[in-house]
């Protein structure tokens, strides 16, 4: 038996013995999230991928969180149940005819290249609390600078491992742990971890060792300082420093978000023989470069957001340097990067890329329509290292959200999201994409 699952069984057994104690059930919470998603992607050029991908499905997300047993050491158990049901998908619009890819856009693929009718998984997490420190073992939805789960499709991506969080010191949160596997947003398989350039399911290389640690320090009410470390064994070591600040002006509020990543090679990725085995990164290197495929990347960014009544105006810049693309956990079936340029379609994380972004959002509550919000984002990246002249790309994202405020359908949410991507990069197709979400959260406990 896997050591992690053996430890999970031991902790679950301890929690079960104490389950009758006050607090375990009394403080439990459970919600059923309903997510209906229609997805349509128009790939406008090239022949390597379908001209159109279109799928529609219904997702069910059961989130149960127990309380803790009484005593100096409290035990608890969380559960995350995920089920996706196909409502519409054809072999031509699911587009995975040879089943070579992990999945289509919303669903896993059967052996005949068609989308499955339904899929699902159950993730359990044992937790132990002592004072202001909590240890967790099992399934996670991480939201950390060095590892963030993706939640852009029917069901969220999940990670498996262990994490320790401590708040023993006032205003300081310490976090550390290890993740071994991840389950894709459109998958039932729990796979080892990798990065772009090495994540081919047949010829790539993977690792079960991602270590992370970090500190979040609140200096007063308006300033947050962060440091995080991440290490995917045999691929990369990453350091992150961040600052977030809120400045209340005589008129409005100014939010500042500063980020810096420094990523270098580790283990087999740092050696020519290891990279030849498949432990390599995507990026750009000149012909014959002995360091071809080696992680070498720095990223800095600054984003400023001004809020005034119902208005939100934002501007940001991001710069990448080094030969490799920005390294991030990526099994090849969807991921999220903690960058200010992570958008609906693109990430803007290629070697050498320089990006600026501007956005505007408006809350229509000020006009007497509470629950209605609209936003627009534009990003432009250039200086991308490629053969010949440097390449550029841009993306425009439009979004309209509404949550019913009363009556029989109170709490039902609607979200329409449109994105357009145009790129000079040879491997990137120009794309137009539409998504329509209908969501509802039903409290069970």
Keywords:
globular, 445 residues, mainly beta, two-stranded antiparallel sheet
Structural overview:
The chain has an 18-stranded antiparallel β-barrel. Strands 6-7 form a two-stranded antiparallel ribbon. A hairpin with a 2-residue loop joins strand 6 and strand 7. It has about 450 residues and is mostly beta strands. The chain contains 3 helices and 21 strands.
In brief:
Helices cover 5% and strands 50% of the residues. The chain contains three helices and 21 strands.
The number of strands is: 21
What's the multimeric state? single chain
Q: Give the N-to-C terminal Cα separation.
A: 34 Å
Radius of gyration: 23 Å
Strand and helix map with partners:
Layout: H1 3-17, E1 29-43, E2 52-65, E3 73-88, H2 91-94, E4 118-130, E5 133-140, E6 143-144, E7 147-148, E8 158-166, E9 172-183, E10 190-191, E11 210-218, E12 223-232, E13 236-248, E14 253-265, H3 272-276, E15 296-308, E16 311-321, E17 354-363, E18 372-384, E19 391-403, E20 413-423, E21 431-443
Antiparallel strand pairs: 1-2, 1-21, 2-3, 3-4, 4-5, 5-8, 6-7, 8-9, 9-10, 9-11, 11-12, 12-13, 13-14, 14-15, 15-16, 16-17, 17-18, 18-19, 19-20, 20-21
């Amino acid at each position: 038996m896997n050591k992690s699952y053996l430890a999970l069984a031991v902790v679950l057994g301890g929690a079960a013995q104490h389950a009758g104690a006050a607090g375990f059930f009394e403080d439990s919470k459970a919600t059923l999230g309903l997510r209906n998603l229609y997805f349509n992607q128009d790939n406008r050029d090239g022949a390597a991928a379908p001209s159109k991908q279109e799928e529609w499905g219904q997702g069910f997300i059961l989130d149960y969180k127990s309380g803790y047993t009484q005593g100096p050491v409290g035990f608890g158990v969380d559960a995350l149940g995920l089920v996706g049901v196909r409502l519409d998908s054809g072999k031509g619009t699911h587009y995975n005819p040879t089943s070579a890819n992990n999945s289509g856009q919303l669903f896993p693929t059967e052996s005949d290249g068609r989308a499955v009718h339904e899929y699902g998984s159950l993730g359990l997490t044992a937790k132990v609390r002592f004072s202001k420190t909590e240890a967790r073992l099992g399934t996670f939805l991480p939201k950390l600078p060095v590892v963030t789960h993706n939640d852009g499709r029917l069901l969220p991506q999940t990670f498996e491992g262990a994490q320790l969080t401590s708040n023993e010191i006032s205003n300081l949160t310490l976090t550390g742990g290890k993740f071994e596997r991840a389950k894709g947003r459109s998958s039932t398989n729990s796979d080892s971890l990798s990065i772009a350039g090495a994540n081919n399911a047949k010829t790539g290389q993977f690792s079960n060792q991602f270590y992370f640690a970090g500190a979040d320090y609140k200096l007063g009410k308006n300033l947050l300082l962060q440091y995080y470390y991440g290490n995917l064994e045999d691929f990369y070591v990453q350091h992150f420093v961040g600052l977030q600040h809120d400045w209340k002006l005589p008129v409005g509020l100014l939010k500042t978000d500063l980020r810096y990543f420094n990523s270098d090679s580790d283990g087999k990725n740092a050696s020519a023989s290891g990279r030849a085995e498949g432990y390599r990164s995507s990026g750009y290197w000149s012909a014959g470069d002995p360091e071809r495929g080696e992680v070498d990347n720095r990223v800095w960014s600054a984003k400023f957001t001004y809020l005034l009544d119902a208005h939100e105006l934002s501007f940001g810049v991001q710069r990448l340097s080094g030969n490799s693309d920005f390294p991030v956990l990526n099994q090849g079936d969807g991921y999220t990067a903690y960058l200010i340029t992570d958008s609906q379609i693109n990430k803007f994380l290629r070697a050498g890329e320089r990006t600026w972004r501007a956005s505007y959002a408006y809350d229509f509550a000020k006009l007497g329509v509470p629950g209605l919000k609209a936003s627009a984002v534009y990003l432009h990246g250039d200086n991308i290292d490629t053969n010949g002249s440097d390449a550029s790309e841009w993306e425009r994202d439009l979004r309209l959200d509404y949550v019913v405020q009363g009556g029989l359908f109170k709490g039902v949410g609607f979200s329409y999201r449109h994105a357009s991507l145009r790129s000079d990069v040879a491997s990137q197709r120009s794309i137009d994409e539409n998504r329509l979400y209908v969501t509802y959260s039903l409290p069970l406990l």
